[in-house]
Amino acid sequence: MNPVHAAVDLPDPDLIQVQTLDEITVKFAGDSGDGIQLAGQKFALLASAAGETVRTMPDYPAEIRSPVGTLGGVSGFQVRTGSAGIHTPGDRIDLLVALNPAALRTNLPELKANGIVILDESAFTATNLAKAGYPGNPLEDGSLRDYRVFPVQIGKLTRGALKGLALSTKQTTRSRNFFALGLICWLFPRPRAAVDEWIEQRFAATPELAKANHRAFDAGWNYGETAEYFVSPLHVATNQRMREAGVYRLVTGNAALAKGLVQSARRAGLSLFLGGYPITPATEVMQELSRYRDPDVHMFQAEDEIAAIGSAIGAAFAGALGATSTSGPGLSLMGEFLNLAVIAELPLVVIDVQRAGPSTGIPTKSEQADLLQALHGRHGESPLPVLAAATPADCFATVVEASRIALRYMTPVVVLSDLSLASGAEVWREPALDELPEFTLHRSVAAADFKPYRRDPETLARPWAVPGDPGMEHVIGGLEKAGESGAVCYEAENHAAMVQLRHDKVAGIARDYPATAVHGGTDACLLLLGWGSTFGAIREATDRLRQRGRSVACLHLRHLNPLPHDLGEALRRHRAVLVIENNSGQLWQQLRAEYLLDLQRLNKVQGTAFRIAEIVEATESLLETLP
Amino acid sequence: MNPVHAAVDLPDPDLIQVQTLDEITVKFAGDSGDGIQLAGQKFALLASAAGETVRTMPDYPAEIRSPVGTLGGVSGFQVRTGSAGIHTPGDRIDLLVALNPAALRTNLPELKANGIVILDESAFTATNLAKAGYPGNPLEDGSLRDYRVFPVQIGKLTRGALKGLALSTKQTTRSRNFFALGLICWLFPRPRAAVDEWIEQRFAATPELAKANHRAFDAGWNYGETAEYFVSPLHVATNQRMREAGVYRLVTGNAALAKGLVQSARRAGLSLFLGGYPITPATEVMQELSRYRDPDVHMFQAEDEIAAIGSAIGAAFAGALGATSTSGPGLSLMGEFLNLAVIAELPLVVIDVQRAGPSTGIPTKSEQADLLQALHGRHGESPLPVLAAATPADCFATVVEASRIALRYMTPVVVLSDLSLASGAEVWREPALDELPEFTLHRSVAAADFKPYRRDPETLARPWAVPGDPGMEHVIGGLEKAGESGAVCYEAENHAAMVQLRHDKVAGIARDYPATAVHGGTDACLLLLGWGSTFGAIREATDRLRQRGRSVACLHLRHLNPLPHDLGEALRRHRAVLVIENNSGQLWQQLRAEYLLDLQRLNKVQGTAFRIAEIVEATESLLETLP
Amino acid sequence: MSQTTVIPAATAELPTPPDRAHFLSGTAPRWCPGCGCFGVLKSLTATYARLGVPRERLVTISGIGCTSRLPYYTGTYGFHTLHGRAPSVALGVKLVNPELSVWVISGDGDALAIGTNHTLHLLRRNPDIKMLLLNNQIYGLTKGQASPTSPLGLVTRSTPYGVADAPINPVNLALAAGASFVARVADTNGAMMEEVFAAAHAHRGVAFVEVLLNCVTFHDGAYAMITDKDTRDEYALAMCPGQPLLYGKQQRKVLVADNGRILALPLAEGEAVPDQALRHDPQAGDAGLAQQLALMGPPDLPCALGIFRQVQAPVYGLDPKPD
Amino acid sequence: MSQTTVIPAATAELPTPPDRAHFLSGTAPRWCPGCGCFGVLKSLTATYARLGVPRERLVTISGIGCTSRLPYYTGTYGFHTLHGRAPSVALGVKLVNPELSVWVISGDGDALAIGTNHTLHLLRRNPDIKMLLLNNQIYGLTKGQASPTSPLGLVTRSTPYGVADAPINPVNLALAAGASFVARVADTNGAMMEEVFAAAHAHRGVAFVEVLLNCVTFHDGAYAMITDKDTRDEYALAMCPGQPLLYGKQQRKVLVADNGRILALPLAEGEAVPDQALRHDPQAGDAGLAQQLALMGPPDLPCALGIFRQVQAPVYGLDPKPD
Ligand SMILES: Cc1ncc(C[n+]2csc(CCOP(=O)(O)OP(=O)(O)O)c2C)c(N)n1
Ligand SMILES: Cc1ncc(C[n+]2csc(CCOP(=O)(O)OP(=O)(O)O)c2C)c(N)n1
Ligand code: SF4
Ligand code: SF4
Ligand SMILES: [Mg+2]
Ligand SMILES: [Mg+2]
Question: Which residue spans of chain B are classified as CATH 3.40.50.970?
């Protein structure tokens, strides 16, 4: 196994016979009606079935339906696959499949120098070129000379392959995606049986379409074999770790969040209740849950975010694991109810899939700028734990950890994800239920002398007696409560004590954390520190820098509140610490306040994730300035 | 004039003939139906008419109407009056007027040792004693031996004085408040003409009640003169500064906020629009405004806080000074709309009259714990200015400053007040309109080449073209905008630039501040730092400590975001800085992050203001530990 | 059934027959003396005692307001939530444990100002939840501001020149939202309250009951015409299913419809009820007529009391999802 | 008049007669090809051109949703506010400057899910604001989830087993809220839209217009029965004030009332309209009958189009406060 992989240049297929690559980044692009997402997903699944590590990232047009062929209508799907050490969907594209001029024009800036473009020459008509804003034809004016361009008459060839089938022109045109997929699957040999099987299933009711897709795929595959363009297929190295037993799937962050909620509740022996309201980019979490027919998995689409979290609080009061999922604007509406959950001390998981703000902002761009809101967006002294997920699959583990904390400490927990995790995907083996950590519950059993605010001495959690439990009837609410009895209490000293108690309870959560683990050694001169979706880019940048001999390590935080007990010590071990965030420095500010350390920061607030190279570059410059 | 006044012990009236006191704290207390608030307010107004500095603080029962005579039903009104140097309603009571046993029992802990109690002996019946939870009669069991107690048959004497009038028993009993007022007004001689005049006005329609109040007042006054208890009246020193021309009034913080909004709009030549929703302790702000018949003063009671701020944003869009007033729970609901005002860059004043939190918390107790929410309670990068008022009258000046900033920088501004300022009162001369600072407006006049996001180079404010202005039609909204045109823009670099721009605009506001002024000298060893309603206690504590020769100074912040440019420097001048707050250290945390200074803190989260003595004591201990 | 729900085989001992006190918490209510809330508390706990539901399966959920203090005084599970938000919390409770009997207590500000959205959607969805709207036409807890049900012209602390916007008619709105059970009662009529609360409980689906509530402190006498002994015959009409809509001294007035409008017809002595008299049908094909009845009120017409509508509809969270 | 309002003596030059293009911004709309929004934009701007109000005094205010993008395409002042909150912002605008003509554009999710509260209170208060509800019975912008107007059983991205709760009837709800002008039109009928929008503008007070809007992408054909050439005679009824409610091929069906219920009566050839036929009266004493008409729809009865109600009531913010 190869621990560190620098991005490799793609070999020139004209020259090399057989080659095993460490990794490859392929992007499928075309009009939003071209079936690009499907082709990309299938390619990723095939790669993963072949045992590779896979990260993907889609690229949707901002409008629901822009005019066909325009720049606004381009849809893309990027797949990075390879052996271990793959932690992002890739900085730049090695191979671009472009089904029309707009797709080429939009994605060319992302293509590596000397990268490969496979394009549908039949789509490079005068009309389409004009729609894409090309003054001339880039295939003829030499503007593509820095790339290796392979024009293929995909449209024409597909039409030919499908001749004789009873299809509309639209259906025929739409089949180009499977031609492209077939060609790429020849180039990076994939077990195509899976594709055939999938086509049979998917189009069981429409045999003509099944035939069309089979034929288009075959035509693409055969074209690869027959045409003189590519001398031989390329192999991508396999991550052997993936061969462990289990079901592997390509999972998006949102799907992993939904799964994580369901499995947490099952592990705890509880019902799950999620109250939600649609909002980009969080909607899929509730949509995933709506599919369950399990009577212990409740998804309730509320009339707004306030009702969404309110219903989840009601469910928690009634003994379920309560949850809600939203994005920034929704979180801004939930502050009052979150505060009720804090004072009522109910177990609740609040998921914020961040997007670019402030206000409506840029709903289809990613950002990490809701951290301060999650920490402080409530009136009064209102502490609660905040966690962040690092990768699409880590969304699962983070939600499980959030649920564990919520139940063990009887507290609402905020989980931060973001758009890049939500729609990005990676291959992941779902752990069996008994592989999940054990959950502590505070469900009361003994009714004698029951007090709703008498605390567990270790966790300071209050007992969880729920409607239906006899002999423990009690009333909770948002007014300040007397110490043990939970009765309404306006006393000065009691209030101070309760404020302190709520603080101590949350602070105590850090006792459960594993020791802070720095990747790359605690003796490095510079520590790169991050949280959330920056994980992959920071990790790969660290590895690359270390390969170049730089004294760099990295540390990624899952727990943003309370911070780990040993974090201050960990930070002080390094000559300098660079806090890397897709915001203006929100964690950086918190860490300054906490540790009084003069930390460095690297921020990007452009709606897009860091490239590995950006971090490498910034780190190199910083290292130069260090004494 | 006496710059520093230590709290003086009240002289024993049996011994001393004539005495001028620096200050006195009187508390009227009785059942909530006893007219206590009225008596207290009248006494305060008379004191202020006599040229004294006055601070008052009411004390309402938590329930709307508790059973008569119970502890829950006690209403109180505290008045502290004296010469200059009075900055709080008083730590402890010098003289307590108690109209029933419950009032005595509730307030006795606040009475100074050797303090005076004047009580209505006729109300100390077995029933009333039982209702107050007294096992015996405190007048007889010696439990009051540490105080100077003057039992007066107020009830009986009032009944006697009112004999012959056509009054119900209830009306007669209710007149006891004017008996008590008369007695106290004899003790601290007041120009009683004002009282007579007021009675005539107030009871013009009910001459029988007018008579009753006159007679009760006279009876009380005469009792003072005749009874052997008090040898002679006491005089309280006068603050000569107050004699400047102008109208003086006893103003609560909430009334001052309302006034401040009206006068700001008038000064700017704009309409004022306040959208509000009732909530304790902010409701009076909207109620004050509802009384105006001025067509340019709009008060709109909305269906909730979201609609309240939404309507204010609409009003600002249409060219008015937009405002809303609420408390913590309401502010928690306003986050999403506040964010819209940030990105739309509209002038808006959002007033948060803080109460104890989190959640519903303790609606009738004071706290300063919404600061972090005001600073950070919105998703995305969303900077806005935050100001805090220091005294009831300062609420006026703070709102004027907030309005100035909102209009000059085209930004929403949050103003923090709190319950203790809202219901406390002080004597204040309302400045004439032309005494207010000048307001800069960005109302566009030239339509040619109008761009809604083209900025003023100095303030970075965008122009304010409003519906009705021809030739400048444009659309604003919550989506990210392109630099100058304000068109919807999803570009990466533009977003980064706009985030920076919004940050820079708010940061630039600090240029306008006056230099940071430390009270007590910049060479003091210890600096006491505060914001908001802690002002009075910190200021008086500083003065007392300096009198005792301690090397202490104090600094009070009005501008909490952005912080003054010279603040870091100011803090670093002192050996130690003690940040004093009615929360768990919210400003303290912000200052640590900003300046990386290891500041000390003193926090009280008990729903009540600091006593001067508490600060003095804490400071003394801290001074001992300083190297 | 949800895994979380602990419904013990043997429930806590119930006094037989359970009396009202068993459903009180023992905390002394803090409402103003004379407040209509006392009567509601009494009737509600009396109803609880009649239902045969053990105390631990009753859940009383409220928002914020004077009226919303009620759960503290019951002996059931309770949740004093946020201003306007009780319906959302109640729905979460009911969906995860359908065995519970869930009661929402709300005020006119709570349910029809800040909480209108949740109220309407609760009624529309038809979960098996009972909602009482204690309508005193004023904000009590915040000391007397206008509410969305305050009558035009009312002088309050926030409307010194009188309320300028027309009030909401809660029953009409509930009907428009599609509520399957809608009723109106007065706080002074304990017997009718108990009867209607029990019927609400028996109804399978959402039940909305407006209680005309007197706030002695800030809006005393709001319903005097409807509840005072001297006037109530003229201004209150108790509806009976299947019966003509009669009221007045000796029930000598009857309602009839005229091109969609409702008119009151006095009956001459001995005159029989005419054929064209409207008959009350809480199960009518649509809620149109019920909505017209809801709009009636003094001085022109009587205020209708009782059950306006009671129809069966799929119950949210109980009946199987459509497939 | 507010001091802030700059109404210049000579307003910007108006082309005479102003044409629709003058009220467009020039930004190309980004709706899906075939979306019903195009028709609404066309009719609305055509109406703007007819009103005689200079462009700078028109304000188009929306929430969030596909439909709420509309202000970007008009040439008026505009505010694309927050999801559900346009009515609040509009009210602030109108109250400080009553000279403006303020139009709220909203979707079914926007106005009747998250924004129900504001919608209802806007209608109740009766300010002189015009509100269009573009009802496609789906959440378009977020790609196809159920909305509060989605029909029972509809399979959407958030309801894979079909919608389980009954839809809101927007017109009925608006009437229950006390709106003084309520209408319904279809996106396919430009002439009727223009007529109704102009009537809404002419009405002094709040106007609520439901537009039946087709979302080609996520809920295509929702109103096909009402708008398709083949079926619309049977399923659409255009109401005329003072006239009997006729529909069907050659208008040979008529609505009658039977003990508060509405029935359709086919007329025999040559048969005159019977006396008991309901006559449409948008100014009826109460909104009861209008509410019944609002509830009608296929397959049993036709969907009523046109103006349901239009009555004069005190206008919030314009008429003097009661004293
Ligand atoms: C978010 C929020 N806004 C405002 C308040 C203040 N508040 C408490 S109760 C109330 C209104 C009470 O009126 P109503 O619901 O009619 O109840 P009542 O007291 O009349 O029973 C208000 C505005 C609050 N608690 N929370
Ligand atoms: C507070 C908030 N919650 C959720 C969203 C996401 N969102 C945008 S539009 C929309 C619903 C759109 O439905 P509708 O109002 O019917 O408009 P349409 O797109 O169908 O025209 C939602 C849920 C948001 N922008 N803001
Ligand atoms: S204020 Fe009114 S509603 Fe509130 S407790 Fe008193 S009487 Fe009842
Ligand atoms: S998704 Fe529907 S509503 Fe939205 S633009 Fe497309 S067709 Fe119109
Ligand atoms: Mg009320
Ligand atoms: Mg819609």
Answer: 248-435
User: Quick check: B191 pLDDT over 90?
Assistant: no
Per-residue pLDDT of B342-389, as tens digits, reads 999 999 999 999 999 999 999 999 999 999 999 999 999 999 999 999
Q: Is D120 on the interface with C (CB under 8 A)?
A: yes
pLDDT of residue B378: 98
Residue B471 near ligand 1, beta carbon < 6 Å? no
Ramachandran class of C248: left when φ > 0, alpha when ψ lies in -120 to 50, beta otherwise? left
Low-confidence ranges of chain A (pLDDT < 70): 1-20, 62-65, 228-235, 237-245, 447
Determine, for residues C173 and D177 on separate chains, whether the beta-carbon distance falls below 8 Å.
yes
Residue range B49-75: average pLDDT?
83
| Interface subset of A 446-485, CB within 8 angstroms of C | 447, 466-479
Sheet holding A148-152, edge to edge: A148-152, A111-120, A93-98, A23-31, A74-82, A53-59, A425-429, A248-252
Residue with the bigger pLDDT between C46 and B245: it is C46
pLDDT tens-digit map of A76-89: 999 999 877 889 99
**For B196-205, B360-369, B397-406, which range has the lowest pLDDT when averaged over its residues?**
B196-205
DSSP state, residue D95? H
What value does the mean pLDDT of chain A take? 91
Minimum-distance CB partner of B369 among A381, A604, A608: A381
- For domain A248-435, the question of CATH label 3.10.20.740 is answered with no
Phi, psi at residue A211, to the nearest 5°?
-55, -45
Closest CA to D179 of D318, D320, D312: D312
ipTM of the complex: 0.94
Write down all domains in chain C, each with its CATH number in brackets. 30-222 (3.40.50.970)
> Could you say which of 1.10.150.240, 3.40.920.10, 3.40.1180.10, 3.40.50.620 is the CATH number of the domain covering A13-236?
3.40.920.10
Is there a contact between A315 and C1 if contact means CB atoms under 8 Å apart?
no
3 state SS of B592 = helix
pTM, two decimal places? 0.93
In 3-state terms, what secondary structure has residue D154? Answer: coil
What are the start-end ranges of the E strands in chain D? 58-62, 77-80, 101-107, 129-135, 181-186, 207-212, 236-238, 246-247, 253-258, 261-266, 303-310
Per CB-CB distance under 8 Å, the chain C contacts of B334 are: none
Question: Contacts of residue C295 in chain D, CB cutoff 8 Å?
Answer: 286-288
Q: How far is residue B402's CA from residue B387's CA, in Å, rounded to a whole number?
A: 7
CA distance D227 to B202: 68
CB A336 within 8 A of CB A412: no
Q: Which of B475, B481, B488, B490 to mutate to test the interface with D (most CBs of D within 10 A)?
A: B475
